[in-house]
Every structure is written in C-alpha cells, then in structure tokens.
Design goal:
The longest helix is centred in the middle third of the chain and has 19 residues, at 36-54. A 3-stranded mixed sheet has the order 1-2-3, sandwiched between helices. It has helices at 36-54, 70-85, and strands at 10-14, 17-24, 60-63. α1 links the parallel β2 (17-24) and β3 (60-63). The protein is α+β, with helices and mostly antiparallel strands.
Length: 90
C-alpha cells in the first residue's frame, strides 16, 4: 500500500528545506471553542499534529487570534524565511 501524501496548510520552501505552517481556524491560542463544530475542527487539528509527530516534524502554528495582528504575523513570517535561508527548517 502506498504511503498517503502529506500536505500542510501552508509551506515555505527554500531549496530542499521547508517549514510547515498550520492555521487553526477553530479557536485562538487558548484553544477555547464556542460550539461543537469548532470542537470537531480542533480535534481534527490535533490528529494532524499527531501526523507531524510521527514524521518528526514541528509545524509553525497560527491561531485565529494571530491573524488579528498582521504586523506581528508579518514579523513571524519574515523570521521563518530568514531561518530557512540560514539553513534551518526540515
């Protein structure tokens, strides 16, 4: 049986290195959900994190409240790009 392909929500690539980014659309960093659907989405995210653990990868995680601070998110993004360029990432 062929191994299923793995896709992150977003990936930044530089040469052969990559940083995976997961965007949690169910809650903020406090992981508090407001309804059953958001709880379901958060449980799905936790299953995705297990796949990362199995593959020995550590994703960058962006929660909904991170998206409310575009300047901070831009700084995080630029720091990730700098990390890749300096040889970091997987």
């Amino acid at each position: 049986m062929q191994q299923p392909r793995f896709y992150s929500d977003f990936a930044i690539r530089y040469g052969s290195r990559v940083i995976h980014i997961e965007i949690v659309g169910a809650c903020g960093a406090d992981r508090v959900t407001r309804n059953d659907w958001e709880a379901h989405l958060l449980a799905q995210f936790d299953r995705r994190l297990e796949v990362y653990r199995q593959k020995c990868l550590t994703p960058e995680i962006w929660y909904l409240n991170d998206l409310l601070e575009p300047a901070q998110l831009q700084k995080r993004f630029l720091a990730l790009v700098a990390q890749l360029r300096s040889g970091g990432g997987s």
